[in-house]
Amino acid sequence: QVQLQESGPGLVKPSQTLSLTCSVSGGSITTTYYWWSWIRQPPGKGLGWMGAIAYSGITYYSPSLKSRTSISRDTSKNQFTLQLSSVAPEDAAVYYCARTGGLGPYDCWGRGTQVTVSS
């Protein structure tokens, strides 16, 4: 059973960088051909894909967030990390990590973590 769990600060100040970690158990983040994504849902809005890192380590980002989004991984810890710079109140959301085979639906999700942006 693959399980994902988000962790990180629940509160960040405007202009700071948000860093969240997704810890994966029951499966390796290097297993072909899975992709590991960060998805967020602002209050009252739908789910929005932010970016992903593949089993190979290659990354892709939403064009709207590419300039301030970075996804990395630590294979020794079986974790991948989201960094979102220059956060603003509009970045407040529930942040999820999830797994997908690429073309199909997300088959594994973390529970999500609430991030508030406030000074």
Structural description of this entry:
The structure is a single chain. The chain has 119 residues and is an all-beta fold. Strands 2, 4, 5, 6, 9, 10 and 11 form a 7-stranded mixed β-sheet that branches. A 4-stranded antiparallel β-sheet has the order 1-3-8-7, with no helix packed on it. Strand 7 and strand 8 form a beta hairpin. It is globular and about 40 Å long. The N and C termini lie far apart (39 Å). The relative contact order is 0.31. The model has no long low-confidence stretch (mean pLDDT 97).
Give the secondary structure arrangement, pairings included.
Layout: E1 3-7, E2 11-12, E3 18-25, E4 35-41, E5 48-54, E6 59-61, E7 69-74, E8 79-84, E9 93-100, E10 106-109, E11 113-117
Parallel strand pairs: 2-11
Antiparallel strand pairs: 1-3, 3-8, 4-5, 4-9, 5-6, 7-8, 9-10, 9-11
**What is the ordering of alpha helices and beta strands?**
EEEEEEEEEEE
Content-based structural category: mainly beta
Question: How many helix segments?
Answer: 0
Gyration radius (Cα, Å) is: 13 Å
Percent strand: over 45%
Largest sheet: 7 strands, mixed
**Model regions low in confidence, pLDDT < 50 over at least 5 residues:** none
Secondary structure: number of strands: 11
Kindly report how far apart the N and C termini lie.
39 Å
Helix content: under 10%
Mean pLDDT: 97
Taken from the alpha-carbon principal axes, the silhouette is globular
Characteristics of this structure?
51% strand, 119 residues, mainly beta, globular, 11 strands
